[in-house]
Amino acid sequence: MIRVVLPYHLKNLARVDGEVELDVPGPITIGSVLEVLEAEYPVLRGTIRDHGTLRRRPFIRFFACREDLSLEPAGKPLPEAVVNGTEPLLIVGAMAGG
Length: 98
What we know:
single chain; alpha+beta; 5-stranded mixed beta sheet; Ubiquitin-like (UB roll)
């Protein structure tokens, strides 16, 4: 099972508490995790990535194993610690301002 941590506003939207656990068929990539996440929680479609292009929304970031994976291709395999469930994939709402 892949563990996913959502930001507070997306947890509220999806009506979940804590981490989300997903059964993702291999290969385990950010794209495949998002496909399963959006299939299980359709209300999240369009909130993490664009409907048409499937590109990450500007103020959403992906982290795993203390690495920022936000600019990595969606088809790049996730770290082994995420694949085996030791570490979660973090979906984080970025902040901007000055």
